[in-house]
Write a structure and sequence with these properties.
single chain, alpha+beta, Jelly Rolls, four-stranded antiparallel β-sheet, 4 helices, 29% strand, binds 2-oxoglutaric acid, binds fe (ii) ion, iron, L-ascorbic acid binding
């Protein structure tokens, strides 16, 4: 049997090349879109966990968290489940931790922690143009998204459109194909999910900076 280096989870996880590519993209343009950047074994951990979930456990997504949470079906109508950092997902959260360290080391982003949820968009669902973080009002610094869908076609809709700061200029449209990785600076890129015409499965996550000071303690999630 021939050894394939890219199939080796250990090498793939610790291979610096993908982190180099991501850092370079974020440094040069503030966003990056990569196919199969997440090591196959790490992605499989996530996908298997997602596939075990029952659709009934997903609940209406809202705007904001905790006390600020409001359902708003005019803005978005996907359904979500937040992930717990438990042993079953250790490979995933380990990889995220390595990514965080590599980005901090190369770009001094000061990323501190990470939160993520699965989303299901049913046919007709969308998420209107929004930013994930308002300057100075959120500790979300870097957005990541990946997908679980196979064989996505342009006519399936559901593209993630990333806009320039004017909210009009389309920078890129990402089709939600399995193990496509999207990362962008949360404050800098308005984006939207176009109406999907088939079930659309994704994971969205945010790397946060620690805004706690002596006067202000960030509330626990
Ligand atoms: O699913 C996507 O492509 C992006 C989702 C998104 O923008 C969000 O959850 O904030
Ligand atoms: Fe978003």
């Amino acid at each position: 049997m021939e050894l394939s280096l890219s199939e080796s989870p250990l090498l793939a996880t610790h291979h610096p090349c993908v982190f180099e590519t991501i850092s370079r993209g974020l440094w040069q343009q503030g966003y990056v879109v990569l196919e199969n950047a997440i090591p196959p074994s790490v992605f499989a951990t996530l996908e298997n966990n997602f596939l075990k979930l029952n659709e009934n456990t997903f609940s209406e997504a809202g705007i904001g968290r905790g006390r600020d949470h409001t359902a708003n079906n005019f803005v978005r109508n996907d359904k979500i489940v937040w992930l717990e950092n438990d042993s079953e997902l250790a490979d995933w959260f380990d990889w995220i931790d390595t990514l965080k360290q590599e980005l901090n080391r190369r770009l001094f982003l000061g990323l501190f922690d990470f939160e993520c949820h699965y989303s299901i968009y049913k046919p007709g669902d969308f998420y209107k143009t929004h930013v994930d973080a308002f300057r100075g009002r959120s500790n979300r610094k870097l957005t990541m998204v990946t997908y679980f869908n196979r064989g996505w076609q342009p006519q399936d809709g559901g593209g993630l459109v990333i806009y320039g700061a004017d909210k009009v200029t389309r920078i890129t449209t990402v089709y939600p194909e399995r193990n496509t990785l999207v990362l962008f600076l949360s404050e800098d890129f308005p984006h939207e999910v176009l109406t999907t015409h088939r079930d659309r499965y994704s994971l969205a996550g945010w790397f946060r900076v620690n805004n706690s000071t002596a006067e202000h303690i960030d509330p626990p999630l």
